[in-house]
């Protein structure tokens, strides 16, 4: 069995080993496990039963990660996307009036659109249309977003982006954990990210700042999950809100995943040849979500944690996928991990991803300004799609007014128009 795993995931060819890949999978899992509680909470606001939403979130994350593990052999973990889930609940259901069953129907439809795009030449056309400056700025923007999230989780800055209260024990302990995490990283200690999480959790428990109440855990019985499994509906398919929702979700999935996957596969992994298979696997993962009863999965930004920890193959994703399934009975214990134990990983990854900024030509304002708005708006709006949208709209405009029409891929005109429509639709609901 061990030899078959080595052969299938080609550890030797990727210059890695079983231990590195396993530790990377564990690290990424702990970095994204928050999604179980957060996504189920958001879905419950759409009327989906909370306990059932927990199961659907776990299944979608596990199945998506296993799909990408075997289809693309990349260390990318799939989870229901933050931002996509809020679009599902607060726009499609609460504002546009779709039932959660019909909203799941839009997830199925957007997944079909995404899959058709990924499995036809259109996927490559869209990827090649994105200028390198925008690709690099998306990478930097994601890194800055992770940095902001890490600083907020640690309490070093508050959620209004003001400096935290350093007189509190919570912030003082967070700074200590951050310093320990940086030292472990700089010293290149094996499993440094996972060690940071463990040490940070222990320190938080010892100092008494970890006040997570285990008694508030969920009921993880599969009983009741049948109420949402395969309960998507096309009853509103003839109505405008259904198609507005489907197209909006599809745009977010198509373009955000192009940017994020490229940042990881071509950027951090230096394996651009794996983009197509990763993109297709992502589409299949997103397609499954409407059937499972949750908003669509995306390539998690936190995948940078696993890659930075040494993950290079699909075994990293497979490990995380299995851990998601195994987490069902132990979620109350996972809840012991405080935000400030995970925060240093986000911040260090932000540093790593920021290095792509040196590839952006800021001397050429037609390249630099769209890149600047992309990398700035991703962290400041806490939304990858917002930053991408501004960059994609500004790029052709600036090229046109400066007489550089030949530098514009024709596909960018369509992309810019679609993002304009996205903003109009977003403002309308």
Please specify the SSE layout and strand pairing.
Blueprint: H1 2-9, H2 18-32, H3 34-44, H4 50-72, E1 78-80, H5 84-93, H6 100-118, H7 121-129, H8 132-154, H9 169-186, H10 192-207, H11 240-268, H12 275-292, E2 297-299, H13 303-308, H14 314-326, H15 331-334, H16 339-354, H17 365-381, H18 384-401, H19 410-428
Antiparallel strand pairs: 1-2
Helix pairs in contact: 2-14, 3-4, 3-5, 4-12, 4-14, 5-6, 5-11, 6-11, 6-12, 8-11, 8-16, 8-17, 8-18, 9-10, 9-16, 10-16, 11-12, 17-18, 18-19
Q: Pick out the low-confidence regions.
A: none
Number of strands: 2
Mean pLDDT: 85
- What's the SSE pattern? HHHHEHHHHHHHHEHHHHHHH
Read across the widest sheet, the strand sequence of neighbours is 1-2
Q: Structural class of the secondary elements? A: mainly alpha
Question: With helices defined by DSSP (H or I, 4 residues minimum), what is the helix count?
Answer: 19
Helix content: 55-70%
Principal-axis shape equals globular
Radius of gyration: 21 Å
First-to-last CA distance: 53 Å
- Binned strand content: under 5%
Largest sheet: 2 strands, antiparallel
Describe what you observe in this structure.
This protein is mainly alpha-helical and 429 residues long. Helix content is 68%, strand content 1%. It has 19 helices and 2 strands. A two-stranded antiparallel sheet has the order 1-2. The protein is globular. It starts with a helix and ends with a helix. The mean pLDDT is 85.
Quick summary:
This protein has helices at residues 2-9, 18-32, 34-44, 50-72, 84-93, 100-118, 121-129, 132-154, 169-186, 192-207, 240-268, 275-292, 303-308, 314-326, 331-334, 339-354, 365-381, 384-401, 410-428; strands at 78-80, 297-299.
